[in-house]
Amino acid sequence: MTDLQWGRVSNDAFNVALFSYVAAMVGYFAYLAFRRTSFWAIARTVASVGLFANVVCVVTRGFAAHRVPWGNMYEYSVLLALLVVAGYLLIVEGYYKIHTLGGFALMFSVFTMAIAVSFLYVGPGPLVPALNSYWIKIHVVAAISGSSLFALGGGVLTILFLVQDRRERRQVATLRAQEPPPIMGGSVDVDAPPDFAPDADEPTAGDVVRRGVLPTAATLDRMAYRVIAFAFPVWTFAVIAGAIWAQRAWGRYWGWDPKETWSFVTWVIYAGYLHARSTSGWKGRPAAVIALVGFVSLLITYYAVNLWIVGLHSYKGF
Amino acid sequence: MRTALILLLMLALASVAGSLVPQWPNSPERVVRFQLDHPLVGAFYGRAGLFDVFGSWWFVLITTLLFVSLVACLFPRTRALVRALRQRPVQAREIDSFRLYEERVVPADPARVIDGSRRVLRRRMFRVARDDDGRPALAAEKGALREVGSLLFHWAFLLIVVGVIYGKGTGFTGRAVVVEGKTWIDAQANYDGQLRTGRFFNGDFTGAGIHLRGFEDTYRRSGQPMDFVSHVDLLDAQGNVVKQTDIRVNDPASIDGIEFFQYGFGWAPVVEVRRGGEVISSEPITFVQDTAPEGVPQLAMPWHGILKLPFLDPEAGLTLELWPDSRAWLQLRTTGESVAMTGEFQPIMFFKVFRGDLTDTSPLSLDTSVMRQAGRGVVGAGQTVDLRTGEALAEGASSKGLTISFPELRQYSVLQVSRDRGVPMVLLAAILVLLGLLPALYTSRRKVWVRAEPNENGTVLKVGGFALQRKPQFDEEFSKLVDAMARAAGEVPAVEEKERVSSR
After folding, report:
1. How many cross-chain Cβ pairs, A to B, lie less than 8 Å apart?
2. Looking at the partner chain, which of A128, A254, A261 has a beta carbon nearest the beta carbon of B225?
3. Which segments within B82-190 are labelled E, that is strand?
4. Is the pTM of this model over 0.95?
5. What is the interface pTM, i.e. ipTM, of the complex?
C-alpha cells in the first residue's frame, strides 16, 4: 500500500473510532438510566470496536508517515483518547469490575478526538528536525501515558467522586432529619439498604437510580487515588525524560519554557494531592479538589501551552 | 510538612506567572515589545521582577525557604528511620485487639510453633524479634522501604539543587557564529554578545575550537525543514583536529567539557571592495533577517548586512540586502507574492553607499544621521559593480573608482555553546527521585504479632496485625500468612479440607 492509502485508512479508522465512542457513550448513559445489562453489553462491545479502530488509526498513521505516530498534536490527541478508553476498560471495568463509568471516560475521549479533528488535523508527514530524536519515543510515550492516567484518575473519577460525595452527604442530611435517627451514628454505608429509614421496603423509582448507579464515594475516592498514584511516577519520568531530551536538543535540561513550567506545576499539584491524601483533615473532598485543579493544569499543559503560550513547544500543527 | 507544601504551592504559582509574562532570558524581544505596548504595566512588572521570575529575589527566596523547611522536616524523619531500623520490633501487650486477628489450634508444642512462624515470617522478608523474656511470642514488621524510599525521594531534590547551583554557577552558555570555512575559538571575545556566565565562573575558557567545513539546510517540497547540519572539525587548545563530526538539531558535539548545539543559520556573502582594481576589503559578512510578518514564511524575508570601511576618507558604510534566490525577488516584484527561499539560486545583493563619519561601532547597524548617500545599485554573484554609479563592469575590466563584487555566497551556522558540569549530578538525582518514588508509593508498612499458648489439643496459634497502608491487600496477605504459619506447625489436613470445600 502507498503512503496515501495508509493515510486514508488511518482517517477512516479515526471516523469509525469516533462514532463508535459516541455510540458507546450513549449506550453507557442508557445503561445508567435504565439499568439494563444488555445496554452495558452493547455499549462495551461498541467501545471495544472503537478501541480497535483507534488502534488501527494510530498504527496506519505510523505507516503513512514512516515514523512514530505521535509527532504532532493531532496524533497525540488520538493516542491520548485511545489510552483513556483502554485504561478505562482495563482498570475500571477489568480490575475494579465497575461498569457504570464508561460514559464519562468515553466523553473525555470523544471531546479530545473531536477537538483533534476539527482544529489540530494535519496530514501524515515527516517530523520537523526539532522533534526528530529517539527521545520522542521515550518522552512522549511517558507523557501521554501519564496524561491519560491523570485524565482518568484526576479528571473522570474525581469529578464522579465529588458528585457522589455530595449526593451521599445530602442523603445523610435527609436521613438525619427523619425519625428515627440513624442507628449507625451518622456513618453512611450506601451499599446497605437504609432499613432504618421509613418506607425502606418500597424503594421509589428514583431511589434505585439514586443509590445504585455510581459506586460509593469511598470506592471512587480509592480508585482515583490508585490511578493517580500510578500516574505520578509515570509523569515524573516523563518530565525527567523531557529534561534529558532538552539537554540534548537545546543544551540545557531545564529552562522554564512554558511547557516545562506547566508540567512542573501539574507535577507539584499532584504531589500536593498525594501529601493531602495522607494528611488527616485533607482526605476526601479537599484532596479531590486538589486533584481536579491538577486536571485543569494538565489540560493547560497540553492545549494552552501548545496553542496560545509562546515557547519552544509551540508546535501548533507539529 | 505543611509549611513545605505551602511553599511548594507558592513556587508553582510563581512559575505560572513566569509562563504567562514574557521572560527576559527566554525571549528578550517579546519583553521589549510588551514594555512598548503597555508602558505602565510594563514598568510595574519590571519593578516586581516579573520579566525574570525565575531569577528574581523572591523566587530564590521561596526556593530557599522551601528547601530549608524540607531539610528541617527530613532530618528528624531520617533520624527516626535509622533508630527504627536499629531497634528490634516491639512486642505487643494485647494482640487480639488489632484490626486483623486469627486463632488456630495446631498439633505442636509452643516452641515449635514459634520457630515455624518465625521461619514463615523471615522467608517473607519480615524483620522478626523473639520475646526478650523467653515467652513464646514474636513481633514482626515489614515495609521500612516505604519510608526509605520517601526519604530518598526528598533528599534527592536537595542533590538536584546542589547540582544545579554547581553546574550553572561554574558554567556558561553563549552563542558562536561561524562562517563556512572559518574557525571559531572558545574565548570571551568570540561570543556573540550573548554570553551568560555563572556566578562562580572564573573565566577559564578552554581555547578549544571548532572549524566549520560546511553547513547544509534541506527542505521538503512543502517547505517544511528536513535537516540542519553543520559539518565541523573539533580542535583542541593547540589547534589540532581532534575529531571530524556533524552537529545537528538533537545531536550535539562536545570537546573539552563544552558542548555545541545547532541553534541557527544564515547567509554570509563574501563581499569584496576594490579601489583602482586593488582589493581593500574582502570578507564574509553575516547577514540577518527581520522577523516575518503574519502569513509570510520566514524564509521569504530578505537578508540584511552592513559593511564598514573606516579606512576610507571620508569614511564609508554600506547597507546590503541579499536575496539568495533572485526568483523570489522577481516574484514579489511582479505578483506581490512572498516565496520562501530554501536555497541558493542566482543570488543578488542590493547596496546603498553612505559617506561621512561612522559613529556607530556595532557591526550590525549603521547610523546614517551624519552621512550622505553616495550611490546605490545591485550586484549579482560573480559580478563587479561601480559603487558610485551602480553600473556593472565588463568582465576583466578595471575601474579607477571604488567597486563592489560578490564572488561567493557562503552560509554561517549559529551554535549554542555551553558548559554545565552539574549535569551528571542532576541526572543521578533525578534517577534517585524515581527510585525513591516507587517504594514510597507502592509498598506498605505492616506489623504482625504471634503468640503460642498451650491448650488441651496442642497449641493455640494467635496472630494479630495491621497495615498502615493498602489495607485491603493486607487482609488477603494476612490470612495467607496465618495459613502458612499453621501449616508450618503441622496443620496440614485442615487446610486441605478447606480447599476441597471451596473448590466444590
Report:
1. 107
2. A128
3. 100-106, 127-130, 137-142, 172-179, 183-185
4. no
5. 0.85
